[in-house]
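Why do we bother with holo predictions? Because pocket geometry can differ from the apo form. Keep that in mind while you read this record for zinc ion.
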Amino acid sequence: MKTANATTTNSQFPRTIDLLFINCHLATMVKGAYTIIKDAALGITGKKISWTGEQTNLPDNPEKLATQVIDCRNKWILPGFVDCHTHLVWAGSRSEEFEMRLNGARYEEIAQQGGGIASTVRATRAATKEDLFSQASKRMDTLLKQGITCVEIKSGYGLDLETELKMLSVIDQLNQAFPQQIEPTFLGAHALPKEFKDRSDAYVDLVTQTMLPRVKDQKIASAVDVFCEGIAFSKSQTRKIFKAATDMGFRVKLHAEQLSDMDGAALAAEFNALSCDHLEYLSSPGAQKMAEQDVAAVLLPGAFYFLKETKKPPIHLLRKLGIPMAISTDLNPGSSPIHSMTLILNMACLLFDLTCEEALAGATINGAKALGLEQTKGTLEVGKDADLVLWDINTPADLCYLIGTTPIEMVVISGKVQYTNP
Ligand SMILES: [Zn+2]
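The structure, written out:
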């Protein structure tokens, strides 16, 4: 474990502190390493972190320094988790499909028979905004209690203009109603809707010519995603969508190389994508292009686990090339109904062979990087957003090691305590 030296602390004490944590240990995750400060304190002023350092460097009588002082009794503070890839808004249930799979059907077969994504699309089209909001709210609440302080949510279960806009509007409502920062992504090209069977180019035209301009006008998405795969959209169709999206000023990201090598990573790199996600079948040239363009790799061990995949993403290659590795729940009804980042940390370690430090960096600073938020989120540093979690653990590795428990004490978002474990 690396321990911080004086350069990661700031000795100058801020004029005012609203909330001061004392008697804690910090894993700041600066530069993707633990960067631990033992016997530390952390101050928050307004919505930002305003002081971090060893407690011995605090002025005398720390209880007089701040409006509120919290004695952490030797517990740990880490940055809040950034969940950079979710499909959190949906209607209906896929537990029947889960059962079908256990009875022998494969993911592609279920998709080809109109199950899979198509069944969620039917339910999501039929649902009212209020229904979608109410179901998604429960999931947002669970994520908060799991220490997830920032979450990306994709559309993509509408696959028509009206429902895609409905989903993005629900995501916007969630952003107003919940303390977590939400990054909305337009994923109109998630699957081919059945009314466009054998006319996928016509659907791509609908996405680029009708949906994208409306999404842009309404300012309800900050990025555009595509599912580039044999069962979804080809590389040339993905290129068309990326071209239209980037011409309109959107950043792009890609579901790439999940079930086969479509050379999507190289295409995403060409468009300076924020991230390539899944990447089980990533090739060496594709990884090289990602490294050249500083594209983050988002690893989704939950989907790998749930689909009982066997081909792992090339972690050695990503490591060798210095590509930032993020991890995420991929929360969705079909392939990763997982609401727990600590479970994902464990899976990233045991299924993909990440170290605990890499997994924790993946759920914090590299998750932020995958959303273009690395300047404001993902580490405990002065000037960054005060999004953090107080954990009742003995060492940060406990978060990767323990299964079936979430030893959380408190969640702070934008400087405000948003959840305390009763
Ligand atoms: Zn996804």
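Confidence is low (pLDDT under 50) at residues 1-9.
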